Amino acid sequence: VQLQASGGGLVQAGGSLRLSCAASGRTFSRYSMAWFRQTPGKEREFVAAISWGGGSTSYADSVKGRFTISRDNAENTVYLQMDSLKPEDTAVYYCAADNNPYFTGTNYPDYWGQGTQVTVSS
């Protein structure tokens, strides 16, 4: 599966952004989808995941209540709605897919997309 993320940018603290990730290749609905993020000098960290059918989601504690992951299997796209953004949310955000239909981010996924930069100014 090939993944193409978009939607990053510069936003003020308290603002919102929506990231999108378009998938191509094998059947999109077979995969759990997830978002990770990474800042310089740190390991890539889990942000959110959604099951193959969209019925189950999981979030990192740091984004719970502010970020929402969703997917549209008809459009082969997964989204990350980010509200109430904080400067510490600044990172490169990566879209990911996993063969486990109920992936929850406890390990690195099977497939990575390229990253999209999110910068939150204070």
Q: Could you please describe the fold and organization of this structure?
A:
Strand 4 (32-38) and strand 5 form a beta hairpin. This protein has a 6-stranded mixed β-sheet with strand order 2-10-9-4-5-6, with no helix packed on it. Strands 1-3-8-7 form a 4-stranded antiparallel β-sheet, with no helix packed on it. The chain contains no helices and 10 strands. The chain has 122 residues and is mainly β. The mean pLDDT is 96. Helix content is 0%, strand content 52%.
Tell me the layout of helices and strands.
Elements lengths: L1 E5 L2 E4 L4 E8 L7 E7 L6 E6 L6 E3 L7 E6 L4 E6 L8 E8 L12 E11 L1
Parallel strand pairs: 2-10
Antiparallel strand pairs: 1-3, 3-8, 4-5, 4-9, 5-6, 7-8, 9-10
How many whole angstroms does the radius of gyration measure?
13 Å
Order of SSEs: EEEEEEEEEE
Taken from the alpha-carbon principal axes, the silhouette is: globular
Mean pLDDT: 96
Count of individual beta strands: 10
Low-confidence residue ranges: none
Helix coverage percent of residues? Answer: under 10%
Q: Strand share of the residues?
A: over 45%
- Major sheet, described briefly? 6 strands, mixed
Count the DSSP helices. Answer: 0
* Amino-to-carboxy terminus distance: 37 Å
